[in-house]
Automatic annotation (TrEMBL):
SUPFAM superfamilies: LmbE-like (SSF102588), S-adenosyl-L-methionine-dependent methyltransferases (SSF53335). It comes from the Bacteria. Gene3D superfamilies: LmbE-like, Vaccinia Virus protein VP39. This is Bifunctional PIG-L family deacetylase/class I SAM-dependent methyltransferase. GO terms for molecular function: hydrolase activity, acting on carbon-nitrogen (but not peptide) bonds, in linear amides; S-adenosylmethionine-dependent methyltransferase activity. It comes from Pseudonocardia petroleophila. The keyword ATP-binding does not apply. Keywords: Methyltransferase, Transferase, Zinc.
Length: 419
């Protein structure tokens, strides 16, 4: 058996930020490649989601019949039945006996990500969040389950990956471990005891002379903390999503004209502008145009745009002369700018589009001109990255020199000067 990394090797200072189970939303679907994955990686989180009133469901892709490769056909059938029963017992031990369980019966140790994606799509269709094995876990079935869940999930659902064999087989400094995306769920005494009871239900995996999950591996799941990695979207947020949002009753899905967050952010942004007036500015992704009037008072010329037809209509209804243009198009960022204000949009762009947009900003803004970027410090479900990771892309670019930094619990704002 390969050497097992001890739990102490994974301690981090500072530890990952906490994950709020209530923030996952109303319907949370947990995906497991095998019976026991869900209990090992997310038992405490499942209990907490249920206690917070979430509608929890479990999908188990395989019956785990190949845990012992030398078993013959009848013995594998018997093991599959045992592991299904163990799952029911484990859920009962967690206080989750009524949680719906979808058993897909796919081949163990040969999980096909494409077939699983197709099976998961109807089960994830209305989910607010999904929780699945981490896509980088060094077990191929776990990685396949994580990738399938990410591919099947709707754009509106946040995704979380729980590691299992990572703890035993990788090292804490392994570059594949996405610590920047890590969040911690801490179990209270009652949850820790319930998780121990639930893990005891999986005797087929933890008992016998050669257990699949031996004590030194099981120790990783008794620490009282569950680590999950936020799974980024692979692509940019689709235009259809924003058209749907802006087509709502009042055309203002984020209450930009009335919420204190939006009003305060605009005030901080305007106060952070180093110059009283600008010759030529651009505001791509203008949304409802709530910022536009105040920004226009500081500019001789202001070009305003959004890539959503519905957002453009909302802005025009408020008296803003907006056009439809998508980043990184020159219509959104014309040349000769001495100010570009790019707020609440860059984290929605995939890596390639963000890189092209940064290049366009460098071309469109004249040397000595200013670029303002501002983003909510949460992580929208539709976004490939959060505000911190998004701002780092520009802060690390030598073409832009930081002038103003504002960081608070709600949003991140930088003013950068074009070098």
């Amino acid at each position: 058996m390969r050497p097992v990394t001890p739990p102490s090797a994974w301690l981090r200072d500072p530890p990952p930020r906490p994950l709020d189970p209530a923030a996952l939303g109303g319907r949370v679907v947990v995906v497991a490649a095998h019976p026991d994955d869900e209990t090992l990686g997310a038992a405490g989180l499942m209990r907490a989601v249920h206690a917070a009133g979430g509608r929890l469901e479990l999908v188990v892709a395989t019956d785990g019949e190949a845990a012992f490769p030398d078993l013959d056909g009848p013995a594998r059938t018997a093991l599959a039945a045992t592991r299904r029963r163990e799952t029911d017992d484990a859920l009962a031990a967690l206080g989750l006996a009524g949680v719906p369980v979808h058993r897909l019966g796919m081949p163990d140790s040969a999980l096909d990500a494409d077939a699983l994606t197709a099976a998961l799509e109807p089960l994830l269709r209305d989910a607010d969040a999904w929780v699945a094995p981490w896509t980088g876990d060094p077990h191929p079935d776990h990685a396949a389950a994580g990738h399938a869940a990410a591919a099947a999930a709707p754009v509106t659902a946040t995704g979380w990956g729980y590691p299992i064999w990572m703890w035993a087989w990788l090292q804490a400094d392994d570059p594949s471990v996405p610590w920047a995306h890590a969040r911690a769920h801490h179990l209270d005494d009652a949850a820790r005891a319930a998780k121990r009871r639930a893990l005891d239900c999986y005797a087929s995996q933890t008992g016998g002379p050669e257990p699949v999950v031996p004590p030194e591996v099981l120790a990783h799941f008794g620490t009282g903390t569950e680590i999950l990695f936020r799974t980024p979207r692979a692509g940019s947020a689709p235009r259809e999503r924003f058209d749907a949002l802006y087509s709502g009753d009042d055309g203002d899905p984020w209450a930009t004209r009335s919420s204190w967050y939006e009003r305060r952010k605009r005030a901080v942004l305007l106060a952070s502008l180093p110059r009283e007036r600008y010759r030529h500015a651009a505001e791509p992704a203008c949304g409802t145009g709530a910022l536009t009037a105040e920004l226009a008072a500081r500019c001789d010329r202001l070009d305003v745009s959004d890539f959503s037809d519905a957002a453009v209509a909302s802005a025009r209804a408020a008296g803003v002369s907006a056009i439809r243009a998508a980043l990184p198009d020159a219509d959104a960022l014309p040349g000769g700018l001495d100010l570009a204000v790019v707020s609440e949009v860059l984290y929605y762009l995939d890596d390639a589009v963000l890189a092209a947009t940064v290049d366009r900003l460098a071309d469109a803004v004249v040397p000595g001109g200013d670029v303002v970027i501002a983003h909510w410090r949460g992580w929208p479900a539709e976004a490939p990255r959060d505000a911190d990771a998004t701002h780092r892309v520009l802060l690390d670019d030598p073409r832009f020199v930081p002038l103003v930094t504002h960081v608070d619990e709600d949003f991140l704002l930088h003013v950068l000067r074009r070098a």
